[in-house]
Amino acid sequence: MKIDLTDTTASKINKALVKGRRAIGTPAVGMVLTMVIVTDEENAYDSIKAAEEASHEHPSRTLVVIKRHARTPRERTQSRLDAEVRVGSEAGTGETVILRTYGEVSDHADSVVLPLLLPDAPVVVWWPVDAPQNPSKDPLGALAQRRITDLYAVENPIEALRSRIRSYAPGDTDLAWTRLTPWRSMLAAALDQARVPIVSGAVEAEAENPAAELLARWLEARLNVTIDRVVTAGPVVTAVRLGTAGGDIVIDRPEGPLATLSLPGQPPRTLALKVRTTSELIAEELRRLDADEMYAVALRGEGTKETPSHV
Amino acid sequence: MSTIPVWDNPLRDPRDRRLPRIAGPSGLVIFGVTGDLSRKKLMPAVYDLANRGLLPPGFSLLGFARRDWEDEDFAEIVHDAVREHARTPFREEVWQQLAEGMRFIPGDFDDDDAFKQLKTAVEELDAARGTGGNFAFYLSVPPKFFPKVAEQLKKHGLAKAPEGSWRRAVIEKPFGHDLASARDLNAVVHDVFDPDQVFRIDHYLGKETVQNILALRFANTMFEPIWNRSFVDHVQITMAEDIGIGGRAGYYDGIGSARDVIQNHLLQLMALTAMEEPASFDAASLLTEKLKVLKAVKLPDDLGDHTVRAQYAAAWQGGEKVRGYLEEEGIDPASTTDTYAAVKLNVDNRRWAGVPFYLRTGKRLGRRVTEIAVVFQRAPHSPFDSTATEELGQNAIVIRVQPDEGITVRFGSKVPGTSMEIRDVTMDFAYGESFTESSPEAYERLILDVLLGDANLFPRHQEVEESWKILDPIEEYWAAHGKTAQYASGSWGPEEADEMLARDGRSWRRP
């Protein structure tokens, strides 16, 4: 069911949530986290859809914060909060509240979000576009254990990557990094089989691809060799070559979901390496909500020899 | 454990928790690949694992059966099985990756040529797909063929792992029909494979909820303090099926529900519910604790009063008229085989002395359900008068194993209104609610564990033998005394079972 609230407050929204839940007959649901999506009107639809699909694996309360821009100076001075509360079948397996802020309240969106967070449950903030310069210092970002940005959605990814390195705080993560998991697990599996030291390497990808840069940095950090960046026509990452004394280990994905793995002295074999949808990426992000230390290693591109804190 | 030389993969790091537990280079050989289990469970599970990216790049699947097939025919059969039964969506690219490594060996278990072919195929896969000599042999065949297959594997040098690799055997229940036959079977298999490399599948242990019993008990603080004789009144473990024996008359008659279910599934569930905290979460520590509990199990003195066996009788079940057990095709009308069994067991240790464990299982019961109910004692003193608590039952924690996996807590709550009236309410945790789609099938988990060599979720031969020691005296008593009771299909069992609990002043939960 859907409840529309115009010029409202967080406490009225909370009441509407309870009312909605009562109406559909599920007074308590086992939601495991609160997901805050900060976006603009243009990207809201796709982001909400991805979050709802991901909520099949992680039932959650989704709070969508959309900043509206008033067109006239007079409207700009007025502050207003509109909300759309969706519960039941219209909100995946959880609850969705779409918050539209006008005027001054836009700068204080955290005051609206804070009372709507699920008790005790972890908070995740996702900026599908326009992530702040310093996610952990952002008022909404500060509420969250996990902050998801996307280097694919910025004008100049390599520049943005540098800024992420400077502002990194535990809990930061980026979908460009998430996209690499299948590549990384296949490379690790290939090395499980090859069992030889790597002496050189190259990542081949389209120009200015932030995931390729992260992959190269991760490989450099882990393997202690220089990784060449080779520009190809794409799409995205097309190949990784790791040189060994006996020949190259190559995962080659010229196009489509099928890649080829070649190991020295063995015939090539086929691998499934699909480009995943945003909802699959978000679902992976939500599986672990603690700091992703390996992302930090990849960002910095250097091996950290310090002992991991949790061991 | 086998000696695999240590190789530190620089791309792996314990901090890198995104990288999944991918099985190392390996292959799976399925004997009896044309069977139901193989088509409905094993092949789809292999595909689902591949689809989730958990199989190594060169993973190979070999089928062995008495069919005149080529590799392509086999791939076709697997394709159909996957299409029909896999949990995850069908993806062409995953299929292609998997199909490249499929081989089929036609032949009988007596056929030396077929096993020679198998050996050649294994060697060919090692060279062509980098399986590294690591193979698991899944014996999806009736137990009477185990000795033959094991002997052939040994004879053709397939069971012996080359240096630095492993060979494992996977076997399904029944693990014998009494202690003596279980020991014979173990001797046969262990003669060929190292006991640590034999994986016995009890698919119940692959279920999320069953693994969650340990998490619930040992990762939390709020349950363990009351998990003992000071607070628990009794424990009921139920596994009910709504189906009859179907086409399994040949296998089922003479075996019965106690051997089929209590000996393995229910005693395993009981061991997990009752065991002490293991020193760590590894196979050896778990085995130690489970064995301790199983060894502490004591049968009631009077087996006649505290065990019940019964057969389903013709009746209406769920709107359908069904036949009784004795009228099933292929069943001797004078058969005494049990399709329902209930037993009372005591655990003689400090934690559980005086707390009975009631185990029951049956076919053609009300509905399909498996659950563990820990029923607590009543509050020793109640400040409320008896009319206020008239409708209050005993507190309970119910672990729902299937279907609708989850946990229910039952406790009393005040009924809204002006008078003080307390009634039972339940608090529910459903897997399907908090973690909706991530629960893998039991077989997926178990096959992956076999390939990884992780034996946590597999009963060891000591447990199997210990379980038979518990059940054998009951079966002997049944064979010598009394007759098999009857219960209407679609009911919750015979009156005798209700009487059995009534004697102790208790009653069965309706699951």
TrEMBL record, chain A:
Pfam families xref list: OpcA_G6PD_assem, OpcA_G6PD_C
Domain Glucose-6-phosphate dehydrogenase assembly protein OpcA N-terminal per the UniProt entry, residue ranges: 51-164
Domain Glucose-6-phosphate dehydrogenase assembly protein OpcA C-terminal: 170-299
Taxonomic superkingdom: Bacteria
InterPro entries named in the record: G6PDH_assembly_OpcA, OpcA_G6PD_C, OpcA_G6PD_N
Listed name of the protein: Glucose-6-phosphate dehydrogenase assembly protein OpcA
TrEMBL record, chain B:
GO molecular function: glucose-6-phosphate dehydrogenase activity; NADP binding
Involved pathway(s): Carbohydrate degradation; pentose phosphate pathway; D-ribulose 5-phosphate from D-glucose 6-phosphate (oxidative stage): step 1/3
Positions bound to substrate: H203, K207, E241, D260, K363
Keywords carried by this UniProt record: Carbohydrate metabolism, Glucose metabolism, NADP, Oxidoreductase
Boundaries of every Glucose-6-phosphate dehydrogenase NAD-binding domain copy: 29-212
Binding residues for NADP(+): R66, D108, F109, K173
Chain intervals for the UniProt region annotation (Disordered): 489-511
Entry EC no(s): 1.1.1.49
Keyword Ligase attached: no
PROSITE patterns the record matches: G6P_DEHYDROGENASE
HAMAP family, alphabetized: G6PD
PANTHER family: GLUCOSE-6-PHOSPHATE 1-DEHYDROGENASE (PTHR23429:SF0), GLUCOSE-6-PHOSPHATE 1-DEHYDROGENASE G6PD (PTHR23429)
NCBIfam families (alphabetical): PRK12853.1-3 (NF009492), zwf (TIGR00871)
Descriptive protein name: Glucose-6-phosphate 1-dehydrogenase
Organism: Streptomyces phaeofaciens
Native organism taxonomy: Bacteria, Bacillati, Actinomycetota, Actinomycetes, Kitasatosporales
Gene expressing this chain: zwf
